Amino acid sequence: MESALALLAARIDAVLPQIQCRRCGHAGCRPYAVAVAEGAPINRCPPGGETVIDALAALTGRPVVPLDRTCGGHTPYALARIDEARCIGCTLCIEACPVDAIVGAAKRMHTVLPALCTGCELCVAPCPVDCIAMVAAGRAWSPEDARVARDRYESRDRRLAGRLRPVRDEARARTPAADDGRARRQRAVAAALARARARRAAVDAKSGST
Q: Within a domain: residue 188?
C-alpha cells in the first residue's frame, strides 16, 4: 500500500504543468511534487503561475503565496525554434531536451517538433552558436499537453536508465582505439563550432560597416 506521502506527491504531480523546466530547482515536475509533499514551498513553478499555486495550496492545506520570482516570472507558452542555417549539428540541444522534442543527427541540421516542445528552454543555453530562440506558441498549454509531456519525459527517463549499464560496461572495456575515436569526434565538433563562429563574426562585421 502506498504511503500517504506518496499519494500526496502523486496528486501534486497531477496538477503540475509537466513542462520539466527545472526552474523550481528540482530535476523535473515529479521530483518537485515529492519535495512539496515533504514540505517544500508551493510557489516555485513559474509555468504554472497562480493557478498551480492555488491548486497546491488546496492539496497541502497551506496558504496561497505569491510566485517566487527567483524562479522566474510566469510567461505565456512558448516554443523553441532552431535557426537551421546556423545549426552545426552538435546534438547538445537533443541531449538537453527532456521530452525528445528535437530531432537530428551529429553534424546534421536539427529541428524542433512544435507539437512536442514544452517550452522548457533547457535547449537554449547549451547551444554553442546561439541558434535557438523561444517564440510565442500562439496557444495555451493544455492538460492534454501536460499528459503527453509526462509520458514522453518518463519514457525518456526509462530509456536513459536502460543505457546506463551498457555505458558503464563500455567505460570499463574502453580501448585506446575507442578513446581515439571519441577524441576525433570531439575535434570535429570543435572545428565546426570554430567555423560557425567565424562565419557569424564575418556577418556581424559586415553589418557593422554598413
A: no
Last residue of a domain, one of 12, 43, 71: 71
Q: Are the CB atoms for 200 and 194 separated by under 8 Å?
A: no
Helix (H, G, I), strand (E, B) or coil at 78: strand
Place of cell 495555451: 140
In degrees, to the nearest 5, what angle opens at C-alpha 114 toward C-alphas 110 and 120? Answer: 85
For residue range 100-156, list pLDDT tens digits in order.
Answer: 999 999 999 999 999 999 999 999 999 999 999 999 999 999 999 999 999 999 999
- C-alpha–C-alpha distance, residues 99 and 20, integer Å: 8
Q: Are the C-beta atoms of 30 and 13 separated by less than 8 Å?
A: yes
Count CB-CB contacts under 10 A for residue 46: 21
Q: Do residues 86 and 66 lie in contact, with contact meaning Cβ atoms separated by under 8 Å?
A: no
Give CA separation, 54 vs 33, 37, 45, 194, 196, in Å: 14, 15, 12, 49, 47
> Does 32 share its domain with 67?
yes
Tens digits of residue pLDDT in 51-86: 999 999 999 999 999 999 999 999 999 999 999 899
Q: Which residues contact 59 (CB under 8 A, 6 or more apart)?
A: 8, 11, 12, 15
The sign of the dihedral angle between the CA atoms of 72, 74, 75, 78 is positive
pTM for the structure as a whole: 0.77
Is residue 79 classed as helix, strand or coil in its secondary structure? strand
Domain with 126, as residue range(s), is: 76-174
Contact 121, 175 (CB under 8 A): no
